[in-house]
Specification:
Layout (H helix, E strand, L loop, with lengths): L1 H21 L9 E6 L3 E3 L6 E4 L4 E7 L6 E10 L2 E6 L4 E2 L7 E10 L2 E2 L3 E7 L5 E5 L7 E2 L2 E7 L6 E5 L6 E8 L2 E4 L4 E3 L15 E9 L4 E10 L5 E7 L2 E2 L2 E2 L4 E7 L5 E6 L4 E4 L1 E4 L5 E10 L8 E7 L5 E6 L3 E7 L4 E10 L8 E2 L3 E4 L8 E10 L4 E5 L3 E2 L6 E6 L3 E2 L2 E2 L2 E9 L5 E7 L2 E8 L3 E6 L6 E2 L1
C-alpha cells in the first residue's frame, strides 16, 4: 500500500514538471511581450492596432516574465500575400517587401508559469514616394514667356507646390530652399507668396527652388524648379489712324492696340459698359459713334495697366455754306460743328476763265474791279477738320458795265433744223436781276409770248411741216 502511494506521488511530480515545461495560459502568470519597430512607422503599435511602415520593416520583440518564472521562448507568425510564416524569435526580424502591401503579425511568449495570449499588429507598407504638383490657381501653372521651362509666381497668383502621399502614411514635411533661405509648407502646400520670398528676389532674373517632400515613413521626393517673380505691369501701346481733332473723328479713324509684358502672357481689354472684353489688332468705330473708348492691358499674373480712354464722336456731316452774289458783292459764310480747316472761293467768267482759289473770310467779299463788265459767278468750297467737304456755286450775275442776255437751249430731239412735234425749250436769263421776254412765231405768225425772271421751260406742240422762230 505504501509503495502505491510513493508511485502515485512520483507520477504527479512528473506531470507537474511536464506542465511547467509546456506553460499554462494564465492572465496573471503569463509573460508579457512588447513590440517595437527599428524602421520608420506612423501609427500605433498597441495590440490589435494597425500602423503604416516603410518598406522592409524591422520589428523587435521584448518579452518579460513575472518573478520566479523562466522564459521558455517567444514565437511569431507573419502572414503576407496569403503566405504564413511561423518562427521562434531570437533577434530583430526584417520582413522583406519593396512594394506597398499589408502584413499581419502575431506574437507571444511562453514561460514556466504561463503562456501569453496572441498579440497582433497589422502593418500597412507604404513603399511609394510622395508626389509633387504645381498650380497657380489657374487651369495651368503660369510659365515664363521667354522660357516655358521656367515657372512664374506673382502676388496675385502665387506658385503653389502641393505634396501628396499615395501610399497612405501621409505627408510629414514639405520644405523648400532658395539659396540659403528656407521656406516651409503647411498641410502639404507651399505657396511662393511675397511673405516667404527672400528680400533680394525680383523680376529681373529667375531663381532656383529646391523642393523636398517626406511622408510619415521617411519616403521622400526632391525636385528643383526654376521660377521667376512677375512684379511688373503690362504695357499698353495704342496707335491712332485716321483723323482726330479734339473729340471729333473721321469715319476711318481707329486704334491699333498691343500689349506686352516681361514675364507672362498679356492681352488688351475694352470696357463695354458692363464688363471687360478682349480686343486685338485694329479697332474701328461704327457710323454715328459717339461714346468713350476705354482700354487696358492685363497679364496672366493679374497685373493690369492704367486705363486709357478716348471720348470721340464720328463727324460725317460736311460743312454748311451760305452765299449770295450781286453785281458788286459776294456775301458768304460757312460753319461746322467740329470746325473748319479751309474756306475758299474763286471767280469764273461766262467766257470760261477761272481764277485761283482765295481764302474766304466770313462776310462780304467784293468782286474785283478787273472783272467789271464781265458776267461772273463764284465757286465756293469748305472743308472741316476731319476732311468732310462741301461745294457751292452761285448764279451768274452782271457786274457793273456788263450787258444782260438770254440763253435758249432745245431739250427735245433735234437734227439740224428739224425737231420733234412736242418741243421743249429751256430759257435762262443771264445778268444781275435779268429777265427774258420772249415771243414765239409759228409759220411767221405770233403764237405766244411771255416773260421769265428766272430760268424756265417753254413747251408747245407743232404740226408736221410747221416752221417756228423766236
Amino acid at each position: 500500500m505504501a509503495s502505491k502511494r510513493v508511485s502515485l506521488f512520483l507520477v504527479m511530480l512528473l506531470l507537474l514538471a511536464s506542465w511547467a515545461a509546456m506553460g499554462v495560459a494564465s492572465a496573471t502568470n503569463a509573460p508579457t511581450t512588447t513590440l517595437s519597430l527599428q524602421s520608420s512607422y506612423h501609427g500605433s503599435l498597441n495590440d490589435g492596432d494597425s500602423t503604416y511602415v516603410a518598406q522592409n520593416p524591422i520589428f523587435v520583440l521584448s518579452p518579460s516574465a513575472i518573478a520566479n518564472s523562466t522564459l521558455l521562448n517567444t514565437e511569431y507568425e507573419i502572414t503576407q500575400n496569403g503566405q504564413l510564416t511561423t518562427a521562434n524569435y531570437s533577434s530583430p526580424v526584417t520582413i522583406p517587401t519593396t512594394h506597398s502591401t499589408n502584413i499581419s503579425l502575431r506574437y507571444r511568449s511562453n514561460s514556466t508559469t504561463g503562456l501569453e495570449s496572441w498579440k497582433s499588429l497589422d502593418m500597412l507598407v507604404d513603399a511609394d514616394a510622395p508626389s509633387i504638383s504645381l498650380s497657380s490657381g489657374l487651369p495651368n501653372p503660369l510659365k515664363y514667356i521667354l522660357n516655358s521651362s521656367i515657372y512664374v509666381t506673382s502676388p496675385g497668383f502665387p506658385l503653389r507646390i502641393s505634396c501628396s502621399d499615395n501610399g497612405g502614411s501621409g505627408v510629414s514635411n514639405l520644405s523648400g530652399a532658395i539659396g540659403s533661405d528656407s521656406i516651409f509648407g503647411l498641410n502639404g502646400i507651399l505657396s511662393l507668396s511675397s511673405a516667404n520670398l527672400p528680400s533680394g528676389i525680383n523680376g529681373t532674373s529667375p531663381f532656383s527652388l529646391d523642393i523636398s517632400c517626406r511622408d510619415n515613413v521617411e519616403n521622400y521626393y526632391n525636385q528643383t524648379y526654376n521660377v521667376i517673380l512677375d512684379d511688373s505691369v503690362p504695357v499698353l501701346t495704342v496707335q491712332e489712324s485716321g483723323i482726330r481733332v479734339g473729340s471729333c473723328i473721321s469715319g476711318s479713324w481707329g486704334l491699333t492696340v498691343q500689349s506686352t509684358d516681361s514675364h507672362s502672357d498679356s492681352i488688351v481689354q475694352k470696357w463695354n459698359g458692363a464688363a471687360w472684353s478682349t480686343v486685338s489688332g485694329m479697332m474701328g468705330v461704327p457710323s454715328g459713334f459717339n461714346d468713350t473708348i476705354t482700354l487696358r492691358s492685363i497679364d496672366s499674373a493679374g497685373f493690369q495697366s492704367l486705363n486709357q480712354s478716348w471720348a470721340v464722336a464720328v463727324d460725317s456731316t460736311p460743312p454748311s455754306i451760305s452765299a449770295s452774289l450781286n453785281q458788286s458783292t459776294l456775301s458768304l459764310s460757312s460753319s461746322d460743328s467740329c470746325g473748319l480747316s479751309s474756306f475758299e472761293y474763286r471767280w469764273e467768267t461766262l467766257t470760261g476763265q477761272l481764277f485761283g482759289w482765295i481764302t474766304a473770310q466770313q462776310g462780304a467779299q467784293f468782286i474785283p474791279t478787273s472783272l467789271n463788265g464781265s458776267i461772273v459767278r463764284a465757286q465756293i468750297r469748305a472743308m472741316d477738320v476731319v476732311g468732310n467737304s462741301a461745294q457751292y456755286t452761285t448764279g451768274w450775275v452782271n457786274t457793273n458795265g456788263s450787258t444782260p442776255y438770254s440763253v435758249v437751249s432745245v431739250q427735245t430731239n433735234r437734227v439740224g433744223t428739224f425737231i420733234t412735234a412736242n418741243t421743249s425749250l429751256l430759257v435762262t436769263p443771264v445778268g444781275n436781276q435779268a429777265s427774258t421776254s420772249w415771243e414765239l412765231f409759228v409759220n411767221n405768225v405770233s403764237e405766244s409770248t411771255g416773260t421769265l425772271s428766272t430760268q424756265g421751260t417753254v413747251t408747245d406742240i407743232f404740226s408736221h411741216g410747221d416752221r417756228f422762230n423766236w
